[in-house]
């Protein structure tokens, strides 16, 4: 069986899911070719696992200081290049096209009538889940940006909808948290401002990851640019996580039962909805602003770490795909074995 797997590379969450799913697809004996879009080649890192992957421009949002710049997003869009890439992508060698909200593979499969499965957090928004500032435009984006013949949504809770738990790229290991260690990942914020917020809080050890940062240490703040293995190591050892409201990192933090504080990317309906859901499920805390006082108040407040444990959805999906990807069989998978822990 040969599969074309399209991955939206705008954020690291989709790539993290691809690391998990890709390993299990290959373990099932499935040949996988990857295509990434939405990020320049020089901004990708630790991509060895994906072999000789394709890279396309796709579509992405431009962010500045914690919010989307819609004007720059429109000016940098390349619709003609996107259409050309869709038309030129040959899906004929593949038995199945997978897409994690990646438009080139999704639309190429649709035009060529190739069987396709779309999965990811965005497809959960096609169901009745907590949504903040939902508009006809946002609903259309979720429906048409990267459609598939079968569409599988992922979320932290089932909300009595036909969606699956998160796909978490974490190998089994002991969760040994250090009581003063805090992981900070705020890629959409000005990193100099983040450093200013953290600097007065000398009673904590902050491990700050972000674009443009070089590996260095200034007192109680350890800085690092994007990487995979060291990031996951520090995530395991931290007792708390401060991040934007992206789905994948929060999912990993929930699985590891960390304290979580998120600041949603302004103007990004998905992240704002994630923050809303996190509050409603009482699995973490969200804030509309970040500064030293907000961070200090949260760190010194009573601990409310998550109490969830998710099934191995990546492995289940890989086995389901290898068995023929029958919709009925997917609906019968009992992946919400932790329902009692979901409040």
Overview of the molecule:
The chain is an alpha/beta fold. The chain has two domains: 197 residues, Rossmann fold (3-Layer(aba) Sandwich); 123 residues, Glycogen Phosphorylase B (Rossmann fold), CATH 3.40.50. The chain has twelve helices and 15 strands. A hairpin with a 2-residue loop joins β4 and β5. α1 crosses α11 and α3 crosses α4. The longest helix has 16 residues. The termini are far apart. 42% of the residues are buried.
Write the topology of this structure.
Layout: E1 2-8, H1 12-27, E2 31-37, E3 54-56, E4 63-64, E5 67-68, H2 70-76, H3 79-88, E6 96-100, H4 103-111, E7 116-120, H5 136-144, E8 150-153, E9 178-185, H6 191-198, E10 205-209, E11 216-218, E12 221-224, H7 229-237, E13 238-244, H8 247-255, E14 259-263, H9 269-280, E15 285-286, H10 292-300, H11 313-322, H12 327-331
Parallel strand pairs: 1-2, 1-6, 2-3, 6-7, 7-8, 9-10, 9-13, 10-12, 13-14, 14-15
Antiparallel strand pairs: 4-5, 11-12
Helix pairs in contact: 1-11, 3-4
Taking all Cα atoms into account, the compactness measure Rg is 20 Å
H-E order: EHEEEEHHEHEHEEHEEEHEHEHEHHH
Poorly predicted ranges: 339-343
CATH topology of the largest domain: Rossmann fold
Tell me the overall shape.
globular
In terms of quaternary structure, what is this? single chain
Quote the average pLDDT.
Answer: 90
Tell me the helix content: 25-40%
User: What characterizes the major β-sheet?
Assistant: 7 strands, mixed
Determine the strand fraction and express it as a percent band: 15-25%
In CATH, what is the homologous superfamily of the largest domain? Glycogen Phosphorylase B
Strand sequence of the main sheet, in spatial order?
A: 11-12-10-9-13-14-15
The appropriate CATH architecture of the largest domain is 3-Layer(aba) Sandwich
Class of the largest domain in CATH? Alpha Beta
Distance between the termini: 40 Å
The structural domain count equals 2
Task: Supply the helix-strand structural class.
Answer: alpha/beta
Number of helices: 12
Total E-strand runs: 15
């Amino acid at each position: 069986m040969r599969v074309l797997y399209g991955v939206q590379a705008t954020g690291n969450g989709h790539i993290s899911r691809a690391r998990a799913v890709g390993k299990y697809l290959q373990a099932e004996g499935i040949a996988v070719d990857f295509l990434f879009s939405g990020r320049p080649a020089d901004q990708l890192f630790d991509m060895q696992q994906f072999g000789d992957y394709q890279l396309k421009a796709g579509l992405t949002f431009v962010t500045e200081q914690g919010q989307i710049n819609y004007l720059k997003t429109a000016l940098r869009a390349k619709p003609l290049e996107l259409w050309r890439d869709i038309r030129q992508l040959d899906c004929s060698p593949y038995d199945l096209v997978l897409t994690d909200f990646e438009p080139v593979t999704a639309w190429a499969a649709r035009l060529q009538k190739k069987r396709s499965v779309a999965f990811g957090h965005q497809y959960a928004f096609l169901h009745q889940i907590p949504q903040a500032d939902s508009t006809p435009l946002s609903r259309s984006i979720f429906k048409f940006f990267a459609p598939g013949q079968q569409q599988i949504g992922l979320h932290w809770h089932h909300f009595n909808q036909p969606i699956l738990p998160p796909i978490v790229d974490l190998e089994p290991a002991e969760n040994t948290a250090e009581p003063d260690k805090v992981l900070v990942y705020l890629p959409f914020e000005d990193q100099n401002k983040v450093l200013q917020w953290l600097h007065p809080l000398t009673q904590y050890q902050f491990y700050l990851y972000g674009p443009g940062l070089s590996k260095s240490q200034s007192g109680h703040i350890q800085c690092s640019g994007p990487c995979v293995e060291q990031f996951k190591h520090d995530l395991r050892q931290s007792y708390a996580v401060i991040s934007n409201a992206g789905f994948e990192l929060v999912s990993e933090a929930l699985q590891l039962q960390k304290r979580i504080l998120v600041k949603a990317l302004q103007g990004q309906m998905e992240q704002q909805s994630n923050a809303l859901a996190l509050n409603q499920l009482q699995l973490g805390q969200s804030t509309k602003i970040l500064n030293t006082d907000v961070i200090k108040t949260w760190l010194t407040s009573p601990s409310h770490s998550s109490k969830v444990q998710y099934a191995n959805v990546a492995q289940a999906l890989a086995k389901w795909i290898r068995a023929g990807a029958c919709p009925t069989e997917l609906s019968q998978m009992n992946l919400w074995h932790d329902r009692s822990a979901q409040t």
